[in-house]
């Protein structure tokens, strides 16, 4: 993905000489005296409810400032990002004049940046509408917030791009572009070379597609503890020979959401300095799960890099199959922490819905660190168990492992247990079963592709690896 096809990077206003003030007011709180001149807020019925905006007129009839309401419980969950609704203010520079006690101006500034996202690559005619610009509040690290938002924009762009422009080759190019930007090393193993590199599962899943399967391997840093990120890069998922119905294919361009998340997180980590003293490796098995005469079949028994045999009972459970080889390769280096991210199971959506990202981790301290971070940055995650009594569910009679146990029970847990079999060797392993999609627009989160768990990890990783 070249710079010309990316969304405009989020930025703050650079000058504040003429910036108009916006006062942030909780419900039931009186607006500051300087904002009440002429009694306009009361006369207009402003109450401070979430998302409410009151424009304040100047003596000449122009807009001299605004009040923005955050309701009476704005610190719960993502409602703290409600300030993104303030992008409906008139264009031009704005500054935050006041925030209620207990609120974080930095979080509100980040909400503003995240709300700037527009995916209009395929829109014809006219330029982008002008947006209001925010001056970064005093004492807030503008560069860090812009780096976080830019990483999130990269994730969103990659997920939102349709499969005709975001196949395995294009996902590789996006990784190469990022590697060039960050000064990282990158190697890619493609097509039949996967077999000679002992990555047979990635090859098996992707060999039916016009764009060859590949493993993308990016490295950054040469000293310190090792962090390995593994992202599922299924650029489109027909379901293979167990073909999905048409109604289930509509969002399958997002099946590379795990890859998009780890690339966005990599950019955040590098641009915020969080990788100082850390070795990072990013592995992305990039494939398209397609149908042709060479497609892998239900009933096939495949050998993995780790030596475990895998019985294919459903070709639509391909994500865990390609991740298995990537995890086994990564585990051979014995990283201090290995994290996989994947749009893996519908079972996770049934259990937790689209907004809450489930994760699995055997290490209590690591999991608790992530949960604290997720709460602090309003990037919700929920710990799920590697429930060992279910191990027998992934052990068929004819092979070591079953990629799709029957019965429909505990689908997300059994998928996580399957992956854990290949992560042996990593000091700690964490797996995210994300959705990667915002079904309807919310403050700072337009409908479409979205990052999940990445800001929580950015916040938590220094402590996890410290």
Estimate the helix proportion, in percent: 25-40%
Summed over residues and divided by their number, the pLDDT gives a mean of 94
CATH secondary-structure class of the largest domain:
Alpha Beta
**What is the number of beta strands?**
19
Whole-number total of structural domains: 2
Question: Which regions are unreliable across 5 or more consecutive residues at pLDDT < 50?
Answer: none
Strand residues, percent: 15-25%
Pfam families: Peptidase_M17, Peptidase_M17_N_1
GO molecular function, one term: aminopeptidase activity
Family: Belongs to the peptidase M17 family.
Domain Cytosol aminopeptidase: 314-321
Show the helix and strand layout:
Elements: E1 20-25, H1 40-43, E2 53-57, E3 63-69, E4 92-98, H2 105-114, E5 132-134, H3 142-160, H4 168-182, E6 185-190, H5 193-196, H6 200-206, E7 214-220, E8 226-231, E9 233-237, H7 246-249, H8 257-271, E10 279-289, E11 301-303, E12 309-311, H9 319-331, E13 337-342, H10 346-352, E14 357-361, H11 364-376, E15 381-384, E16 401-402, H12 411-420, E17 429-433, E18 437-438, E19 448-449, H13 454-465
Parallel strand pairs: 1-3, 1-4, 4-5, 8-10, 8-13, 9-10, 12-16, 13-17, 14-15
Antiparallel strand pairs: 2-3, 6-7, 7-10, 11-12, 14-17, 18-19
Helix pairs in contact: 2-3, 3-8, 6-9, 8-13, 9-12, 11-13
């Amino acid at each position: 993905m070249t710079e010309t096809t990316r969304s405009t990077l989020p930025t703050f206003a650079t000058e504040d000489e003429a910036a108009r003030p916006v006062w942030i007011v909780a419900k039931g709180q009186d607006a500051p005296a300087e904002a009440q001149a002429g009694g306009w807020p009361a006369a207009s019925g402003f109450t401070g409810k979430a998302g409410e905006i009151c424009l304040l007129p100047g003596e000449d009839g122009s807009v001299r400032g605004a009040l923005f309401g955050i309701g009476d419980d704005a610190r719960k969950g993502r409602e703290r990002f409600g300030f993104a609704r303030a992008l409906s203010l008139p264009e031009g520079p704005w500054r935050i004049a006041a925030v209620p006690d207990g609120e974080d101006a930095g979080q509100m500034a980040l909400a503003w940046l995240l709300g700037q996202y527009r995916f209009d690559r395929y829109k014809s005619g006219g330029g982008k509408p002008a947006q209001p610009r925010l001056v970064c509040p005093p004492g807030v690290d503008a560069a860090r917030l812009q780096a976080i938002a830019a990483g999130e924009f990269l994730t969103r762009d990659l997920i939102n791009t349709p499969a005709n422009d975001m196949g395995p080759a294009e996902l590789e190019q996006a990784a190469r572009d990022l590697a060039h930007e960050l000064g990282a090393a990158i190697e890619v193993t493609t097509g039949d070379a996967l077999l000679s590199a002992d990555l047979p599962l990635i090859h098996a899943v992707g060999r039916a597609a016009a764009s060859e399967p590949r493993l993308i391997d990016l490295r950054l840093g040469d000293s310190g503890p090792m962090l390995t990120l593994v992202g599922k890069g299924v650029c489109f998922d027909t379901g293979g020979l167990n073909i999905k119905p048409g109604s289930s294919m509509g969002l399958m361009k997002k099946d590379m959401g795990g890859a998009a998340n780890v690339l966005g997180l990599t950019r955040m980590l590098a641009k915020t300095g969080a990788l100082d003293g850390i070795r990072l490796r990013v592995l992305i098995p990039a494939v398209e799960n397609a149908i042709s005469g060479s497609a892998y079949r239900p009933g096939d028994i495949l050998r993995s890099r780790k030596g475990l045999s895998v019985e294919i009972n459903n070709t639509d459970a391909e994500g865990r199959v390609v991740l298995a080889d990537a995890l086994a390769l990564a585990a051979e280096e014995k990283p201090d922490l290995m994290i996989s991210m994947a749009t893996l199971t519908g079972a996770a959506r049934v259990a937790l819905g689209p907004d809450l990202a489930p994760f699995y981790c055997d290490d209590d301290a690591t999991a608790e660190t992530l949960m604290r971070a997720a709460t602090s940055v309003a990037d919700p995650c929920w710990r799920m168990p590697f429930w060992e009594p279910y191990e027998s569910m992934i052990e068929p009679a004819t092979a070591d492992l079953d990629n799709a146990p029957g019965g429909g029970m505990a689908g997300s847990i059994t998928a996580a247990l399957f992956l854990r079999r290949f992560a042996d060797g990593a000091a700690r392993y964490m797996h995210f079963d994300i959705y990667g999609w915002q079904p309807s627009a919310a403050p700072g989160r337009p409908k479409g592709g979205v990052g999940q768990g990445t800001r929580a990890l950015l916040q938590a990783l220094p402590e996890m690896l410290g």
